[in-house]
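Design request, tokens follow.
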């Protein structure tokens, strides 16, 4: 009887140890909330032959130390004149942002993001036009301090649903480069 009890205790201890090592999708810090960040983005979008300043940002929640989910926005600083359509406009775009920073604990690491959501073309002396945009980007990021990261990215802004006379979505879809300043904290490392 003593052997059976000792064997049962050893078996239960072994099973509990194995169960503690089981991996799950939402366990083991895989998708746990590990930080919060504010991003300030300054980018230059290339319309026709001009580079135009667009500023924006995002507020992101960090999951598992490398996945970021948040709300982002972009706004043109000044009106832009398109000769093709003889049109002055400003672009505003906001939406959900998803980003991935593999090896974010290293000093220099890659950073990939995509933002998708609605926006508006504010056309001077005319009506505003509702649009939809997707902006994938990729680049490098440097961990300057625990609470400050500096990044450089390049991407493309795809604009759809444009309803402006003599112009289409391709006239407003542009490549861009941007500088990103991220402020926040990731408690997943410390």
């Amino acid at each position: 009887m003593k052997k059976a009890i000792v064997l049962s205790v050893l078996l239960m201890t072994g099973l509990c140890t194995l169960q503690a090592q089981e991996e799950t999708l939402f366990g083991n810090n895989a998708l746990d909330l590990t930080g919060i960040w504010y991003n300030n983005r300054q980018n230059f979008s290339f319309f026709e032959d001009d580079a135009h300043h667009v500023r924006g940002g995002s507020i992101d929640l960090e999951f598992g130390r490398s996945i970021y989910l948040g709300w982002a926005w972009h706004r043109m600083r000044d009106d832009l004149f398109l000769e093709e359509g003889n049109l002055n406009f400003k672009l505003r775009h906001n939406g959900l942002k998803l980003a991935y920073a593999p090896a974010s604990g290293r000093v220099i690491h890659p950073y990939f993001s995509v933002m998708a959501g609605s926006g508006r073309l504010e056309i001077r002396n005319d009506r505003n036009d509702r649009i939809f945009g997707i902006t994938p980007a990729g680049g490098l990021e440097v961990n300057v301090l625990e609470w400050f990261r500096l990044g450089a990215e390049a991407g493309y802004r795809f604009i759809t649903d444009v309803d402006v006379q003599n112009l289409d979505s391709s006239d407003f879809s542009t490549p861009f480069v941007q500088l990103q300043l991220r402020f926040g904290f990731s408690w997943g490392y410390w």
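Comment from the thread starter after seeing the answer: thanks! Confidence is low (pLDDT under 50) at residues 15-25.
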